[in-house]
Design brief:
heterodimer; A: 713 residues; alpha/beta; 8-stranded parallel barrel; 5-stranded parallel β-sheet; 29 helices; 19 strands; 40% helix; disordered N terminus; B: 207 residues; 4-stranded mixed β-sheet; 6 helices; globular
């Protein structure tokens, strides 16, 4: 039942009973906010810097497992560019590039109230969003430009679904409302503006603090109180949360009806349940914490018939070289590719990145931020790490102190060195064995238990199972190394969960390093969402069940610990790179001289570097060649970018290396074809069906792409 | 098969998504013949009572719904759909409803410090043995958006109540196989999906 709210209807009532007020009112809420920008979820800083988190669908689905009270999704896209996930090899995606297409797909996995905002200009915009699954619609700039819109919308759809969103910035005198994503000043005081919006029929206020955005220093409680004192309608506070303890004061001290946050929910496992637990303990009468859903299990269930048809269609395309069918909507998706003005990274990439106004990628931006971190800040971070491990260290000898995920590479050696020598922990080393070792890589891995006097578990799935997974993953997602990406992110966590060890160490956060996915203050940890979305591309082990006869038992290696177990153990997977200065070139000296790490001079076909990925001969080879087939770039690009950022290479030389190495068809392909029993022709045809239409054109029987050229011959 | 009444005044998309999620066979319809033939009926709705009844009358759905319920076949009203099951409503003047549940729809009575509409997650007190709540844990919360509630003439028809200040409001009903939920089960996660699931099973048991 809905009705327009009138001032009389509200007279004399307070919208936000203090906790312990009259019984029976609704519970206060804890609300995640997702920022959607051109098709992907971003992390925001001061309304200016936006780093890509990833696929909106996997984030929403994860929130559904955590039973969040309510969800706010804000579209902060600019200009006319549509929404695009930027790659077609993902299991979870949406069709179309309109915001309504994204919203419709979100509504399919969202069983909680959903507020949708951003770029809402007309009554029709509101109606369209409500029709595809939003429960409430938020208006911001449009409310400022045409305040009557709020009145008309409340009359037509009911106040309960009209949210007025206010972005406020601190000034010398108080606060000022800004519109247009914070770019335009209005001269309005947020409390006066909120009162006006309430009078016009808004049912709720969403208040965001621009200067606190992404800072992680806590809410601007004075601002929140300033506005809650002025209105009767409920207020959702947003902006500034960096720790779970930050939520409660917004409700208890500043009388907000709901405490919202964006960034924090992306970076930590079970962040929402943990935040709720903390706020409940602080006395906020939230809805009780519940984990999991009987109807929406964490491991996705796949539409078998649909997937069978999809696979059969791909096999047909490969068989008949039907590339127009393999590149649907090519005309729509093809767009000029840009390259970072500083390194060689393209705008269409496997790694999520953005460019700033000057055309510099987030990877370069973050590398600069990282390089500017002074020694005393690294000291503070190491101190943080010391405090953290003290909480998890074993006190009674019943288990190892921590697990270290190792591949036997130079980074693994450095990690174990830090864990043992700097932190003084007794680790259990855990390795996933994907059966693709180089000889020197294998020797380095086997040597670790001796070099470090540490226990070492190597998990070695059946070779026959691996062959099947190689073949299947190649056909399904154009990447045979699914088993390795997922195995590495699963096995160490699983061993830790089974042995009751609450701490797992990984090395660097790959995406932070490569494309600046997070800020250096985010301290991202291992999460199920990140594992499923980025490492598994939405394909959980259950996808392969029954394909090539694979059973649940055979797929056991790739099963992640349950959420219940993760919460009970408070299991955390940390990336050492967030706490310890990571200087790959300096590590080599240490690990060779002190621990006997064996350097390989054996060159790879697809990169000039000889140090990386010794644990998996295909990682720099076939796997990377497939990345080139899909996106038009490979390891040559990845490695030159890192060297440019480390000031070891200039861009002109890098471009030459990229153009030399990226297109090379590697020799390890022969081993792989022999391993899985496939002809090269079958491989090529299948690979061609994965060419991304954003990059590749099929012209006169040849595949063509735009490439980066040197500015001087 | 659950026929979901598509009168043009509801969040039918969310309701259908939720029914798909619990594995129910469901179909949106505004065709009186299909309504008459359906095993179970679901009547969603948002908006004002008068508009809701007018939409049902416009599509010739009033009689088929009444006949369906009086024939002992399961029907579930959600939010405004539950209110429409009542005899009458006082929202914006007096209106006649479907008359399947003796009672009258009236406005919530807030105390100081409370507000109408009541929007958010609320706990409810469930009547022991209520079929819709067979799988609902005692502390389950549901999502509400409403200003009006039903006063049942027959106290036994009330299956769930909400304490709203000193107002005891009926927010779920069961009378034979006529059910109602004032909250939004399609937006209440597992607690809500379990209610829809219970309704699905009641229908399937009769097939």
């Amino acid at each position: 039942m809905t009705e327009p709210l009138t001032p009389t209807a509200l007279a004399g009532q307070r919208a936000h009973p203090a906790p312990g007020g009259p019984p029976g009112g609704p519970h206060p809420r804890l609300v995640p906010v997702l920022l959607l920008k051109h098709g992907v979820i971003v992390r925001s800083q001061l309304f200016k810097v936006h780093q890509v988190i990833g696929n909106p669908l996997s984030s929403v689905e994860r929130f559904s497992h955590w039973n969040v009270d309510e969800l706010i999704v804000l579209d902060i896209s600019r200009g006319s560019e549509g929404h695009d996930l930027r790659r077609d090899d993902l299991q979870q995606s949406y069709d179309g590039d309109d915001v309504l297409d994204v919203l419709r797909a979100i509504a399919e996995v969202c069983f909680m109230p959903l507020t949708f905002g951003g770029r809402v200009r007309t009554l029709w915009d509101i109606e369209a969003r409500l029709a595809v699954g939003a429960d409430k619609v938020a208006l911001n700039t449009a409310a400022f430009e045409t305040p009557e819109l709020i009145e008309q919308a409340a009359r037509r759809f009911g106040s309960q679904c009209i949210v007025a969103s206010i972005d406020a910035e601190k000034t010398d005198a108080g606060w000022e409302v800004r519109v247009d994503g914070g770019r335009r000043a209005t001269g309005l005081d947020p409390a006066d503006w909120a009162r006006d919006l309430e009078r016009r029929g808004a049912g709720e206020i969403l208040l965001n603090s621009i200067d606190r955005d992404g800072a992680g220093q806590g809410y601007d409680l004075e601002l929140i109180r300033h506005v809650t004192d002025a209105v009767e309608i409920p207020l959702v506070a947003c902006g500034g949360v960096g720790r779970y303890e930050h939520f409660a004061p917004a409700i208890l001290d500043a009388a907000a009806a709901a405490a919202g946050a964006a960034n924090i929910f992306h970076f930590f496992e079970l962040s929402y349940p943990q935040a709720k637990r903390t706020a409940l303990a602080a006395g906020v009468p939230l809805r009780p914490l519940r984990l999991g859903s009987k109807y929406l299990p964490r491991e996705p269930s796949y539409d078998r018939a649909r997937e069978d048809a999809r696979l059969a269609e791909r096999l047909r395309q490969a068989e008949e070289a039907d590339y127009p069918a393999a590149q649907p909507a090519a005309a729509i998706k093809r767009q000029p590719i840009r390259w970072c003005s500083h390194c060689t990274y393209p705008s269409i990439s496997a790694a999520p990145m953005e460019f700033d106004a000057a055309g510099k990628c987030t990877g370069c931006q973050m590398a600069e931020v990282k390089a500017a971190i002074p020694p005393d800040e690294w000291a503070r971070r190491t101190e943080l790490l010391h405090d953290l491990v003290e909480r998890y260290r074993c006190r009674d000898g019943s288990r190892h102190d921590c697990v270290v995920a190792v591949s036997g590479g130079k980074d693994s050696y450095f990690q174990v060195h830090v864990v043992k020598e700097v932190l003084g922990l007794n680790p259990l080393l855990v390795t996933y064995d994907g059966n693709n070792w180089t000889e020197v890589g294998w020797r380095n891995m086997v040597r670790m238990r001796e070099a470090f006097d540490a226990d070492h578990i190597v998990v070695r799935p059946s070779v026959e199972t691996l062959k099947r997974l190689n073949r299947l993953a190649f056909q399904v997602m154009g990447d045979m190394n699914w088993h390795a990406h997922v195995g590495i992110m699963t096995v160490p966590m699983r061993v830790a969960a089974e042995r009751g060890i609450p701490l797992v160490f990984y090395g660097e956060h790959g995406y932070l390093d490569l494309c600046g996915q997070f800020s250096m203050d985010d301290f991202p940890e291992v999460t199920y969402r990140d594992r499923l979305e980025h490492f598994a591309r939405g394909y959980e082990w259950s996808y392969f069940l029954g394909r090539e006869g694979l059973t649940a038992q055979q797929l056991d290696t790739w099963k992640y610990p349950s959420d219940t177990r993760l919460l009970e153990l408070d299991l955390r997977g940390l990336f050492l790179g967030n706490y310890v200065h990571w200087e790959a070139n300096a590590h080599i000296k240490l690990v060779t001289e002190r621990y006997g790490f064996e350097i390989s001079e054996e060159p790879f076909d697809r990169t000039y570097r000889t140090m990386s990925n010794l644990d998996d001969m295909h990682e720099n080879g076939v796997h990377d060649y497939l990345k080139y087939i899909k996106f038009g770039y490979g390891r040559g690009t990845d490695h030159t970018c890192k060297d440019i950022r480390a000031s070891l290479m200039n861009r002109e030389d890098a471009i030459e290396l990229v153009n030399r190495y990226d297109p090379v068809k590697p020799r390890d392909l022969l081993r792989w074809l022999d391993y899985v029993g496939m002809t090269e022709e079958t491989f090529d045809r299948m690979a061609d069906t994965f060419r991304d239409p954003r990059v590749w054109r099929h012209e006169d029987g040849r595949w063509v792409r735009d490439r980066l050229e040197r500015s001087r011959p | 098969m659950i026929a979901v009444i598509d009168s043009g005044l509801s969040n039918i998309g969310s309701v259908l998504t939720a029914l798909r999620r619990i594995g129910a066979e469901a179909k949106p319809t505004r065709d009186p013949t299909e309504v008459a033939a359906a095993g179970s009926l679901l009547l969603p709705g948002v908006g004002a009572f008068g508009d809701g009844m007018a939409a049902l009358r416009k599509h010739g759905l009033v009689e088929p719904i009444r006949a369906h319920a009086e024939g002992g076949k399961p029907v579930l009203g959600i939010c405004l759909g539950m209110q429409l099951l009542a005899g009458e409503s006082e929202e914006f003047g007096m209106h006649e409803g479907l008359g399947l549940i003796p009672g009258r729809v009236r406005r919530l009575r807030p105390q100081a410090g409370q507000r109408v509409p009541n929007i958010g997650w609320c706990n409810l007190q469930v009547r022991t043995g209520a079929q819709l709540f067979a799988d609902t844990p005692a502390d389950a919360c549901f999502y509400f958006v409403h200003s009006y509630v039903i006063d049942c003439a027959v106290e036994e028809d009330a299956a769930g109540t909400l304490t709203f200040g000193d107002d005891r409001a009926t927010v779920a009903i069961e009378r034979g196989r006529i059910f109602g939920a004032q909250f939004h089960p399609e937006k209440s996660q597992d607690a809500g999906l379990a209610v829809l699931d219970a309704f699905r099973r009641i229908g399937e048991a009769l097939q």
